[in-house]
Amino acid sequence: MKFKIQNFGPITEGFKRDDGFLHLDGVTLFIGGQGTGKSSVAKSLSTMLWLEKALLKEDFTEKQLMAPGKFKSFFSYQGIFDYFRKKTVLDYQGRYYRLSYIEERLAITKMDTHDLIEQPKIMYVPSERNFLSSCKKPSTIAGLQPSLITFLDEFENAKRAITAPIALPVDRSSYAYDRLNDISWIERRGNRTRLTFASSGYQSLVPLFLVTDYLANFLEQDRMAVTAHQMRLIREKLNALPLAEGLASGTAISVLKESPFITLDDIRSSSKAVQQILKRYRPSHTINVVEEPEQNLFPDSQTRMMYSLLAYRNRNPLNRLIITTHSPYVLSAGSLAAACSATFAKNNSAAEELEKIVPSDAWIDPDTLTVYEIDEDGMIEKLDTYDNLPSDDNYLNNALGSFNDAFETIFDLEDSL
């Protein structure tokens, strides 16, 4: 998956290497100062990801998407419609489609792939998520940003799916949901607090953690619902197949039995031609785009939350995790997870000691970790690596280092008296 972005919002020339394309496989972090364009990249990318998925599911046609003003209208969902300029370039190369918006024109190219379709579940986790925890009835509030409404829907689904307290990744705490009274509880060291009255850190962490956990479990369930429109499309495609490729084997396709589900058995027991159809409408992995996972959290909690996100990402090799962050602790946690993986590959006997540093389910191959830094001029650089790990010479670490330099200057002035 590749993405080029130029002259969009705060982003100016963007990335200058690799013909301007950011590579977004595995785990990708965007770091930089306030207002440099991290969210602009994440929001525009998530929009392009959704458009590819919609084309694959035939929610609309290529011709409809290329109608005047149609493409740009989808960016209103993320509140970035006004970020377009005359020289805006948004060039997304996915697995199935390439969407190129250059010189105010959209070009769509269908990629030639013979692999089985693998449809993602795309989740954008906005930085405003703590608002949903601090309000008693956020669904009754008018004027919410559409992306926040979508996240709220998933948050509500996640809460309703909980039947017992679920452990949170920080401070030996847990979350419980009283469905009858619609109350969220935080339980910590024998104390019980409503989420609406809990600390801002919990109000930010709980929606992120619950939705991530819910989606991971959702994709692993046997039955997955499809809409009536999707059922009709599936039936049309199945009926159009030659008998030998379609239902000649007697495979029981759930959607042909008036059941609005696609089951894992439907896919496993079907021919490749049938699988290609069913997999269009049943996502198999997640693309989790998270704004500021560190929000309002103590440094140790930031690290543990990051390890949790990495562990969920590791549950499926196709999963993607894309993060924007201001936190050196989030960046360091990603580097530590990669370092543990690299060390274990060289020395298996070190597993127990490495586990004490980073939980093994959060270890990631260093080759799958990429960090991009955005500067105040809207330029994007890929962090250099040392021993295949992101360099310590970056905006976040340098910002911390500036305090040490300032202290050294102060002490020098004191000694000069």
Question: Could you describe the 3D structure shown?
Answer:
Helix 6 runs parallel beside helix 10. Helix content is 37%, strand content 21%. The chain folds into three domains: 239 residues, no CATH class; 97 residues, no CATH class; 52 residues, no CATH class. The chain is an alpha/beta fold and 417 residues long. It has 13 helices and 20 strands. A hairpin with a 2-residue loop joins strand 6 and strand 7. The longest helix is centred in the middle third of the chain and has 21 residues.
H/I helix tally: 13
Q: Termini distance? A: 59 Å
Runs in which pLDDT lies below 50 for 5 or more consecutive residues are none
Biggest sheet strand line-up: 2-18-17-4-16-15-8
Overall spatial form: globular
Query: How much beta, percentage-wise?
Result: 15-25%
How many extended strands? 20
Helix content: 25-40%
- The SS-based structural class is alpha/beta
Rounded average pLDDT: 90
Structural domain count: 3
Q: Give the C-alpha Rg.
A: 23 Å
**Major beta sheet, specifics?**
7 strands, mixed
Jot down its keywords:
417 residues; alpha/beta; 3 domains; seven-stranded mixed beta sheet; five-stranded antiparallel beta sheet; 13 helices; globular
Summarize this entry quickly:
By secondary structure, this protein is α/β, with parallel strands linked by helices. The chain has 13 helices and 20 strands.
Protein topology:
Blueprint: E1 2-6, E2 14-15, E3 22-23, E4 27-32, H1 38-56, H2 62-65, H3 70-73, E5 89-93, E6 97-102, E7 105-110, E8 120-125, H4 130-134, H5 146-160, E9 166-167, E10 173-178, E11 183-188, E12 191-194, H6 200-220, E13 223-225, H7 228-240, E14 261-263, H8 264-268, H9 272-278, E15 285-291, H10 299-313, E16 320-325, H11 328-346, H12 351-357, E17 369-374, E18 379-382, E19 385-386, E20 389-390, H13 395-415
Parallel strand pairs: 2-18, 4-16, 4-17, 8-15, 15-16
Antiparallel strand pairs: 1-3, 1-5, 5-6, 6-7, 9-10, 10-11, 11-12, 13-14, 17-18, 19-20
